[in-house]
Amino acid sequence: MYYSSAPEQIRYLVEQVESQVVVVDGPAGLERLIAAGPYGGLPKHVIVLDDPQGVGAPGVIRYQDLVGSETVDVDAAAAAVTPEDIATIIFTSGTTGSPKGAQLSHGGLRCLMESMSIAFGAEFTGKRFVSYMPMAHIAERANTHYLPLRGGHDVTTVAEVTALAQTLPAVRPQYLFGPPRIWRSSGPPSRTSRAPPRSSRPRGSCSPRCRWMPSRSPSRPQPRCRRRCWTATGSWACT
């Protein structure tokens, strides 16, 4: 669920998946869940991650208390899961009606992770990632949650997408996933971008951004480059 979800949307999602356990971030999230009133009250179990003052409603479990309880036999729990079992349910945005839940199985997610690992190569382990999109987004869940579990990657979480530009130089991620709007707003220009007139840039100056090279065929742009320089001959060159 999203921070912007209205009470009726929260109630709809919780009841659709018949949730018995709901995790909220803190007292504010708990208030929103109470306002939604799924099942005419609250789910069977509600866990509050950050509630240092213990202001949660009666029956609500604080995360600090949960981690101090009896541990689970992880091997036994894993052995009880089959590839056909549902691992997660991802809901659509609901722009064309009520959100629809897509059931993703353990086998399907494992196949995705193994395929990505094969595509990236055996050395793709222990890399630095940055997570900045909501985990309700399947792409973010796959890239910065499931994939790091498979490859032992280090994930830095950004609270707000507006802080992404400041986070990247500090973390220097070796892998970054992003939807098109991220690259349009903070990354390289689109394929249709053209080099500026010769008189607009001094000879020998370099652009710090990676941009598409000009191509005779607009449908077949040349590969991106790490650095692009405006040469003495008045043309772009990759370095």
Overview of the structural elements:
By secondary structure, this protein is α/β, with parallel strands linked by helices. Helix content is 31%, strand content 15%. The chain contains 8 helices and 10 strands. The strands form 4 sheets. It has a 3-stranded parallel β-sheet. Helix 2 links the parallel strand 1 and strand 2. Helix 1 crosses helix 2 and helix 5 packs across helix 6. The longest helix is centred in the middle third of the chain and has 15 residues.
Features:
31% helix; three-stranded antiparallel β-sheet; 239 residues; single chain; alpha/beta
The number of helical segments is 8
* Shape descriptor: globular
Provide the spatial order of strands within the biggest beta sheet: 1-2-3
Series of H and E elements: HEHEEHHEEHEHEHHEEE
Strand and helix layout:
Layout: H1 7-16, E1 21-24, H2 27-36, E2 45-48, E3 61-62, H3 63-67, H4 74-79, E4 86-91, E5 101-105, H5 106-120, E6 128-131, H6 138-151, E7 154-157, H7 164-171, H8 180-186, E8 206-207, E9 228-230, E10 236-238
Parallel strand pairs: 1-2, 2-3, 6-7
Antiparallel strand pairs: 4-5, 8-9, 9-10
Helix pairs in contact: 1-2, 5-6
